[in-house]
Amino acid sequence: MGKFELPALPYAYSALAPHISEQTMKLHHDKHHQAYVDNLNKAIDMHPEWASKSIEEIIKTYNMAPDDIKTMLRNHGGGHYNHSMFWNMMSPKTGQSPLETTKSMISAQFGDVDTFKKQFGDGATKVFGSGWQWLVLDNGKLALMSTPNQDNPLTQGKVPILGIDVWEHAYYVDYQNRRADYIASWWNVVNWEYVEKMLIK
Question: pTM score > 0.85 for this model?
Answer without folding.
Answer: yes
